[in-house]
């Protein structure tokens, strides 16, 4: 709970620090990249999240890591601030919040689509178009394939779930038959 509150504050602060709002998506990509670096390395996690290791050593190692990338200077300062305030451990949550606010700023919403088969580009565009009309926002699709739904699609936008799958229809029919008996 506290992590979410802190993550929202840091995400909003990072967005506020970016003067050129067209840079938000680029900074988001960079934040995702550095977040995945920490997520993928247990050694880095053990090093940076260990309170017994002095801050100065962590700072030196972080400088060396950041030299490998050409991140926006504001993002680099932000990462050092996270290190200083001991919030580097929630960088993934901060990234998620940052992207949420970027999407909000850019009038976008992310939709997770599950289909029984691989969708063609034209099907993806048609789904995105319908969801865009429904939400009034631009849609960023994340598509997954799950053959267990038999057919149709399941669309998730935030907490809204639109289940148009065959397996759902079969479950509805089953439930109505059970109620009648």
From TrEMBL:
Pfam families: OSCP. One of its GO terms (molecular function) is proton-transporting ATP synthase activity, rotational mechanism. It is found in: Cell membrane; Membrane. It comes from the Bacteria. GO terms for cellular component: plasma membrane; proton-transporting ATP synthase complex. SUPFAM superfamilies: N-terminal domain of the delta subunit of the F1F0-ATP synthase (SSF47928). Gene3D superfamilies: N-terminal domain of the delta subunit of the F1F0-ATP synthase. Belongs to the ATPase delta chain family. F(1)F(0) ATP synthase produces ATP from ADP in the presence of a proton or sodium gradient. F-type ATPases consist of two structural domains, F(1) containing the extramembraneous catalytic core and F(0) containing the membrane proton channel, linked together by a central stalk and a peripheral stalk. During catalysis, ATP synthesis in the catalytic domain of F(1) is coupled via a rotary mechanism of the central stalk subunits to proton translocation. This is ATP synthase subunit delta. It comes from Candidatus Schekmanbacteria bacterium GWA2_38_11. The lineage of its organism: Bacteria, Candidatus Schekmaniibacteriota. The gene is atpH.
């Amino acid at each position: 709970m506290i992590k979410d509150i802190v993550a929202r504050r840091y995400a909003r602060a990072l967005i506020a620090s970016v003067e050129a709002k067209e840079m938000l998506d680029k900074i988001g990509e960079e934040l995702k990249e550095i977040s995945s670096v920490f997520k993928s390395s247990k050694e880095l996690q053990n090093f940076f999240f260990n309170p017994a290791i002095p801050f100065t050593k962590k700072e030196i190692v972080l400088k060396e890591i950041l030299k490998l990338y050409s991140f926006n200077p504001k993002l680099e300062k932000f990462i050092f601030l996270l290190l200083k305030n001991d919030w580097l451990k929630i960088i993934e949550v901060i990234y998620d919040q940052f992207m949420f606010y970027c999407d909000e700023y850019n009038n976008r919403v992310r939709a997770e689509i599950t289909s029984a088969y691989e969708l063609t580009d034209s099907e993806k565009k048609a789904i995105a178009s319908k969801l865009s009309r429904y939400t009034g926002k631009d849609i960023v699709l994340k598509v997954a394939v799950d053959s267990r739904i038999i057919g149709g699609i399941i669309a998730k936008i935030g907490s809204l779930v639109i289940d148009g799958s065959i397996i759902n229809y079969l479950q509805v029919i089953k439930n109505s038959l059970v109620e009648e008996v």
